[in-house]
Amino acid sequence: MCGIVGFIGKKRAAPVLAKNLKKLEYRGYDSAGIATLAKGSFHLLRCAGPVAGLRGGGMLAGTCGIGHTRWATHGAPSEENAHPHIYGRFAVVHNGIIENYHALKEECEKRGEAFSSQTDSEVIAHLLERYYMGELLEALRAVCARLRGSYALAVMCANEPETIALAREKSPLIAGYSDGGTVCASDIPAVAKQGAELYAIEDGECAVMKKERITFYGMGGGEIDKSPLAFDPETEAPYRCGFPHFMKKEMAEIPAVLKAARPNLGDFRYEAFYEALCRAEHLQIAACGTAYHAGLAAKFAFESLARVRTEVSVASEYRYCDPIVPDGTLMLAISQSGETADTIAAARLAKERGAKVVAIVNAESSSLAALADYVIPVRAGREIAVAATKTFNAQLAALYSIAASLAEYRKKRGYGDVLAQLPGLAEAALAAGEGVRSWVPYFVGASSVYFIGRGADYVAALEGCLKLKEISYLPSEGYPAGELKHGTLALVEKNTPVVAVLTSRRLAEKMMSAIEEVRARGAKVFLITSLCEYAVAEGVTLSVVVPECGEIFSPALSVIPLQQLAYYVSIARGNNPDKPRNLAKSVTVE
Ligand code: AGP
Q1: Is the domain 240-414 a CATH 3.40.50.10490 member?
Q2: Is 532 a catalytic residue?
Q3: If you count Cβ atoms within 10 Å of the first and of the last residue's Cβ in the chain, which end, N or C, has fewer?
């Protein structure tokens, strides 16, 4: 989380930095700041809140500068904790977490150095001041040797005009040529333009940016040659295209995404992956948040269609539970960004224990993709809204497709041509889902909301619940419908909204009993179903009917009205659905 940028060119740096920072706000917007360097002095502007608060920033002198948009980890989201941090001759922006900052800070304080923020990052500027012997890159290398944790760093020294030094360990960083000068950024969209040439800085590498040239180095050694990243400036550019929010635009893209996401495993590019898939004896899936829910949904497909044992773990738990990785394990690490620290760590651990790792990612040039043995891109296009929507559907389409190919190879259950029909069915689900607008008054002032389902419907319920929590801030819980009576039912009161997902004919009667149970306690039941006859069942307050696509694949469609519900409730509660409080799109810290 956090976005960093840097620029050196012929024009004023500050407007370029502010413009590029804005495109990184999906990484955090608790505070923002810019520092420029002109005639040996720093000019600093910082604010609490998003980049728009940097008023007058364009006036800062200097053609060289760095900037930051923050997702607070250490220290409140205030102006004093905003980056850049300046100490002595150094200005620093940092994305990541310095795990040993307490000890380092104490060390500096013993030397009589005063700190002006509560962040873990400020200590880097203090150390640079201590280790500087006349060469910025060498000072940065010496400082990095003292740091434990994760960092992407851009630093300037008042003694070295038109120079920015960069270093990376476990937090993303790219650098290259754009905007008529040299640039660096946490992610491609900040600097992606026609004609831009961008390079990924890898873990354990550093670089020096000058006005006309960037040189890349190993942390301990000499120069490194790099190949430029492939990217499409059109698709990287974050435009809303007339939609009121990115989230709305991204939901509208679901049908197209369902089509693009299915890998053609017959293609020679996937040959090695397909072989590994067919050889796999066990599947393990690790992911976080929405991607974890995609993994849970995929388990039904892998087990039911292909009869391969599949374990799904929250990545942050997997890495600390001493996982057993049997021979023949294929680890599917699912991540939109490919930069989620916990998912990367889980994948790395699985690899160390002998598994082959497949990265199911939207960002093809990501850290997760780089460490994986095989990469399956889900090709959903850039997702800007913090709440994941189209990428969930894309992950499902890719995973279902893989499961179906495996089932075919193992001559297990057939699945018809449902997957090919999903895009068209999703169009219908989107249209039907607009019906949830009439549900909004029942939710907007609710004190809690429950989402229930069974089997794959339970997974859709979990994802719908996460969406609602994330952007409406309503306390919500997703529950397996059969488990309610073992505790959660005690929380249901008169008018409590309960969203029930029902697409499984096999489980319909069981599900209706659970609906009866909550209704008897006064709940108002809102149903998302593909089974028309239940849409008008007694006790259902309002319902939305989505097309039928079979129990296993149903989350790809039933989740759509749930995403729409979260969107409309968020707006009705006066929130910005694209930028939920306290969150960031890409969680690059543990
Ligand atoms: C979903 O709406 C979230 N914003 C979040 O749960 C997200 O899915 C999670 O942080 C994982 O991100 P990733 O897919 O980039 O790894």
Answers
A1: yes
A2: no
A3: C
Phi-psi region of 475 (alpha: psi -120 to 50; beta: other; left: phi over 0): beta
As beta bridge partners, residue 94 has: 153
Distance 587 CA to ligand 1 centre (A): 8
- Start-to-end Cα distance in the chain: 10
The residue ranges of every structural domain in the chain are: 3-236, 240-414, 427-590
Residue 585 a catalytic site member: yes
Using most ligand atoms within 8 A of CB, pick from 587, 588, 589 the residue to mutate for ligand 1.
Answer: 587
Give burial (CB, 10 Å; 0-12/13-18/19+) of 248.
buried
CATH class belonging to 427-590: alpha beta
Confidence category of residue 236, pLDDT binned at 50, 70, 90: low
Do 240-414 and 427-590 share a fold? Answer: yes
User: What is the Å distance from ligand 1's center to 251 Cα?
Assistant: 16
Q: What is the pLDDT of residues 75-105, one digit of tens each?
A: 888 999 999 999 999 999 999 989 999 999 9
Using the mean position of ligand 1's atoms as its centre, give its distance from the Cα of residue 27 in Å. 12
Q: Is this model's pTM higher than 0.90 or not?
A: no
Q: CA of 249: how far to CAs of 45, 102, 241, 255, 320, in Å?
A: 33, 43, 8, 12, 37
Residue from 2, 47, 144, 465 carrying the catalytic annotation: 2
Q: Superfamily for 3-236?
A: Aminohydrolase, N-terminal nucleophile (Ntn) domain (3.60.20.10)
For ligand 1, residues with CB inside 6 Å are 288-291, 335-337, 340, 343, 386-388, 470, 586-587
Q: Looking at 170, 467, 469, 585, which residue is catalytic? A: 585
